[in-house]
Each structure stands twice: as C-alpha cells, then as structure tokens.
Amino acid sequence: MGAPIYPCFMWADRGGIPTLVTRKVFYKLLGLFSLLLVFHGAVMELFFHRIMENSAVSTLPILGREVLLSGVAAILVALPLAAWFSLSISRRLRRMVYFAHRIAEGDLHTRLDDSYHDEISTMADALNTTASRLEQSFAELESRRSELAALLDSMQEAVVAITREGNVSWSNSVMRRLAGTQIREDRPLVHSVRDPDVLACAEAALRERTVRTGRATSMLPGRTFEINAAPMPGGGAVVVLHDVTSIEAAEKSRRDFIANVSHELRTPLTSISGYLETLLEDPAPKPETTREFLQIILKNSNRMNRLTEDLLELAGVESPDYKLSPQPIRASELVEDAIESLAGLVVESGIALESGGAPTSIVLADPDAMTQVFGNLIENAMKYGKSGGRVRVSAHNQESEVEFVVRDFGPGIAYEHLNRIFERFYRVDKARSRDSGGTGLGLAIVKHIVQAHGGRIWAESELGHGAAFHFTLPVIVSAQLPPVAAAPTVMQEQEISSESNLA
C-alpha cells in the first residue's frame, strides 16, 4: 500500500520536525504562561506590602527570603498545571498517531473519540471524516471488484491476468478448471499452462504491448481454443481462451455434408448425362438399347428424388421449429401399425415380417413420426439382412420406458461401425448401399425423431448373427386407454389359420 499517510499532520518546511499543535494551541500555552507571570507578580506585590509594613526589621534578608518563597510558590502552582495540560494534549495526540497507524494498516472501521471542543477535537473530527470517506471508497472498490469477478466467472471463456513479470495475478473459474490445481496466484504462468501457443501469445503481448491471437490445441486433449492476449494499461496482460471445438466440429460437419451431397448428386447426374449423350449421338439407336438406357436414367432420377426427399426430411427434423403431435398410445399398437403398414413391401421382398410381442404400456408418441421410424428401420433390415429371411419387431418394458427392437438375421454389422452408423451419409458397405437404392440418411432421420420424443437409440450386432436396432420411448403412467385384447403374433396367426383349414 506504500508509505503510511497521516492526512491531518503538517510538517515544517525546515528540519523535518513535525508540528503536532496548531497555532491556536500555541497561543493557549502562551496565555497560560502569561497568567502564571501575573500570578507571580501578584504574589510579589503581596510580599512587598508585608515588607513595607515590617520595614523596621532588616530589609534585605526578609526581601530575599520572600522572593525565594514567592518563586517557589509560583513554581509549585505552575508545574502541576503545565504537567496536566501537557499530558492531556500528549495523550490526545498519541491517540491520533495510533489512529493514523491503524488507518495505514487498513483498519478503516476505527474512529477517534474526543469529547473536548477545541482545535484538537476539530482535527479528530477531520480525521474521522477522512477515515469514513476512505472506508466508503474502499467498499465501493471492493463491490466493483466483486462484480467484475462474478462477471468474469460467469463467462464461458477462460481468462487469466498476468503481471509484467509473467506471474499469474488473477484467473476465473473456467481457467482454474482447465488448468486444475496447477494455476496459482503469484506464480509464473509457465508453471500452470504448458501450451506453447498460449505462452507465446502472452509473452508477445507483454513484450510488444500489442494484441496477439493464436490457436491452442494441447490445453485439453481433443479441444481447440482460440487465444486472445492483450496488454493492460498498468502493465501486465490478460489472456482469454475461447473454446471453438464445437464451432470447428460444426464447420467440419457442414463441409462434409456439402461434399457428401455433391458426391451423391454427381454420381446419378453423371450417369444420366452419359446415357443421354450416347442416345443423342446415335442417329438410329436400337429400341432395346434405348429402353435399357431410359430405364437406367429413370433409376438414377428416382435415386436423386429419394435423396432430395431425405435431405428435406432431415432438414425438417433437425430444425428447431420441428414440431411433433404426440398422443398417448399403446406400445403394442405401434408395433402392430408398423407391421401392417409394411405388409405390401414384405410380400414383394419375400422376407417374413414377424412380431415378437409388445406390452400394452402407454407411451407418448406421434403416430406418423413413429410410422416413419419403423418404416426406415424395417426397410433397412430388409435391405441388409435379406439373407436371414425374416425381420422381427418387438417391444418390452424397461423401468420408466418401453424399449422397441427391430432385428434382422442377416450377416450383421462389424463392431467398429456401430458408433457411426447413425451419422449422415455413413455406410458400412457403400457399393451395396448404392445398389439397393439407399441414401445414407434414413438412420440419421430416425435418430433425430427418436431424440425429439425424449428417447434413445442404439444398434447392437455380431457378425454372422444379424443386427438389432433399439430405441426407447418414455412411459406415461397416468394416461388411461380402454383395454384391448393383445394382438396375435405372426406365428399365432399361422397356427389359427392351420386350425381353421383342418376344421
């Protein structure tokens, strides 16, 4: 805080001797001394009268004795008065010196209590006023410092301030979480942060007194930070780290999405353009060749149409404005509706679609959206699990939710693909996907619809034993629907049909 400051004490111009009393106090001492002189004169006058009355006696011895006695009497009266007055002033001034030391040490709550009504008490009042103003000023500064600290702690960016020597003077909570227990005040920044890009920007801001920017990739594994280091007016610098990992991931996802869409559209467009040019260059194409080429062109145009529709559907379910129309519905009804709606597709593919049973628990779901979910999952199972000959749809209770399963019995999916299979345009077998007419967006659409319902979705598979796609929907306990008989499974339907034929 620097050297102690005594705001109420004045110092002489010569010799550096402190003047602890004001001019009026000096005048009071001078007046007291004058009163003592008058008192001494009065005493002398009294003694001289006695001398004159006793003039018959020897004058000189009596005069000397009387003068000595009068001087001693004056001294005996003056000394106690002077000592009392001096001790009183000294005691009050010592309290002021002690008060000044307390203020210099930071104790701004202390106050002087002086009950006199003179110049020294006026000085004490001035000291109390000064201490009160200092206390108010420090309280305002502390309040502003606390507000600034709270503001910086509420930021999502990591902030650290360093001195001109490179030591940490302050850091917010985000920075402390990033650096852990290593970051401490009054310690060099290099002991707390080991990222070379952060240290280089901080050093450049201190040395060159200019704003420096950079990018840090080794602060935390897998995270990227944008660095902004700026010098502070009083010396030192402040370093701000902004986490741009999600921004870069979104940018990469956007670039990948554009590249994938361009690639998916370029392939059928190239095929269509090539076959049309061949037909136009041949002045008399054969009818069978023309028909074959037109079928290929139609196939590729249908593929482009499906891709466009899936892109629009994906954009819709990913939009913040995507709205569902959920209603209470039994899980068994969802399974039955899914099987019935795809009955025609099953007949054409020659694959058996069977029900593995479902509870009558009530879930909150949008029936149209759930039809799309089951449709994409069942079509996907029929395309890639065709060799298994059948697809099973089932559901069962899981505590506060119902778990739905669409299982095929085909070749299965390798483990390394399971975590990425719901990404846009991700394909396990790209050649087979294109031959089957897939766009690579169906599972991504399913994931967003399920998550919009508050559910989860994942895939399980083992090579040679098929694949199973699971998703959940929350159960509604309070909803009441009229009881219905459980729907028979495909196997039960076959048994009923056999019994009716025997009858």
Number of domains: 4
According to DSSP, the number of beta strands is 14
Strand order of the largest sheet: 4-3-7-6-5
CATH class of the largest domain: Alpha Beta
| Shape field | elongated
State the helical fraction.
40-55%
Distance between the termini: 107 Å
The SSE string, one letter per element, is EEHHHEEHHEEEHHEHHEEHEEHHEEH
How does CATH name the architecture of the largest domain?
Answer: 2-Layer Sandwich
Strand count, sense and barrel status of the largest sheet are:
5 strands, antiparallel
Quick check: average pLDDT?
76
What is the fourth-level CATH superfamily of the largest domain? Answer: Histidine kinase-like ATPase, C-terminal domain
- Which stretches of 5+ consecutive residues score pLDDT under 50? 1-22, 484-503
Proportion of strand residues: 5-15%
Radius of gyration equals 49 Å
Structural class: alpha+beta
CATH fold topology of the largest domain: Heat Shock Protein 90
Number of helices: 13
Molecular structure report:
With 503 residues, this protein is α+β, with helices and mostly antiparallel strands. It has helices spanning 23-53, 59-104, 119-153, 173-179, 196-208, 245-281, 287-318, 331-341, 343-349, 367-384, 430-435, 442-452, 490-502; strands at residues 10-11, 18-19, 158-162, 168-171, 212-216, 225-231, 237-243, 327-330, 352-355, 362-365, 390-398, 401-408, 457-461, 467-474. It has a 5-stranded antiparallel beta sheet. A 5-stranded mixed beta sheet has the order 9-11-12-14-13. It has a two-stranded antiparallel ribbon with strand order 1-2. Strand 5 and strand 6 form a beta hairpin. The radius of gyration is 49 Å and the shape is elongated.
